[in-house]
Amino acid sequence: MRLIRGALAGVLVAGLLAGCGRGGSVPASPGPSASPGPSASPGPSASPAAVTERTLTLANGTDRPLPTLVVQPASEGRHPVVVFSHGYTRTPDDYLPLLRTWAAAGFIVVAPTFPHSARGQQQLDDQDIVNQPGDNAAVLSAVLALDTAPGDPLSGRIDRDRVAAAGHSLGGMTTVGMFTKHRDARLKAGIVLAGGQWPFGVGYTGAPAPILFVHGRADSVVKFEGATEAYDPLPWPKALLDLPAGDHLRPYLGPGKDFDAVAAATTDFLRWSLLGDEKARARLAADAGQAGKVEDRLSGTGKG
To answer: 266 lies in which domain range?
Structure first.
């Protein structure tokens, strides 16, 4: 995608900071084996006791700290994993309503804070996106290892064969990178929210994995054409949620009808792509409601 350089250096910084919602962060735990915090307040479709939250102290090498928010279902059993990448000048905490919705639906969500693209970092640099797919790979490896860590809240809870990547804006581009130049073979599905192919290109590689793109026509930061530049060349099962009134932030941070559509469609996409739930696939068009429409070019391949 030909992302406007001024957008990331100027408009993205000014626009996203001006549109910041919550400014706080989830308190950090001492380390990967820390106990989960109290039950989180839920997203729009979650019950109060449906999820728990904590932050893991992770890193990718000595110079890339990656404090990672984990939002997991309170229910027993094994659950798929979704690695979520935040947008430029955002933090995982900004997306909690959406992440909690996914967790309440039965998915373990892990969301690192990147060292050079998160709000509050001393050195913001959009070019550091080239390192973020590797950061996600390191986080995913560390989290999957907790499945066999005695006493950890994730011990015996992870479905290691059902993993997806998702992200918003710069994080959506990071997600594209995890299916192209930095293909992570563990990924079985992807969700790209207001993102595109910059700077990784559209050389999709590896086993086919269904990907859902979501983009608003009123997005002035990453234009709608940015989504289609990544979506159109994708040869795998795919779908596009088109939001005519959607801007760059509200459909993903909430509240509002666009957010409700995104929460419903992404949750059903995860249910289908990772769990093989055909009823969830059938709901995708209706999930858009009056907020937009879904182009469904998914097929029977690539499911969990």
So the answer is: 5-20+54-297
Nearest CA to 207 out of 123, 118, 304, 97 is that of 304
pLDDT of residue 49: 63
In a domain, 45, yes or no: no
CB 167, CB 147: distance < 8 Å: no
Q: What share of the chain is helix, strand, coil (3-state, %, to 5)?
A: 35, 20, 45
296 Cβ contact list (under 8 Å, min separation 6): 239, 284, 285
How much is the pLDDT for 73?
Answer: 97
CA atoms within 13 A on the CB side of 9: 4
What's the burial of 94, exposed, middle or buried (CB within 10 Å: 0-12/13-18/19+)? buried
Q: Considering the domain boundaries, does residue 30 fall inside one?
A: no
- The dihedral built from the CA positions of residue 151, 91, 58 and 146, taken in this order, carries a sign that is positive
Select from 55, 293, 85, 66 the least CA-distant residue to 200.
85
Please, which pLDDT band fits residue 301 given cuts at 50, 70 and 90? very low
* pLDDT over threshold 80, residue 146: yes
Residue 274 has pLDDT above 70, yes or no: yes
26-67 confidence digits (pLDDT tens): 222 223 222 233 233 333 444 546 999 999 999 999 999 999
> How many domains, in total, are found in the chain?
1
Considering only CA atoms, which of 106, 99, 43, 44 is closest in space to residue 74?
106
CATH number of the domain residue 206 falls in? 3.40.50.1820
14 vs 222: which has the higher pLDDT: 222
Percent of the chain surpassing pLDDT 70: 82
| Inside any domain, residue 108 | yes
- What is the b/e burial string over 100-117, where b = at least 16 CB atoms within 10 angstroms of the residue's CB? bbbbbbbbbbbbbbbbbb
Q: Is 11 contained in some domain?
A: yes
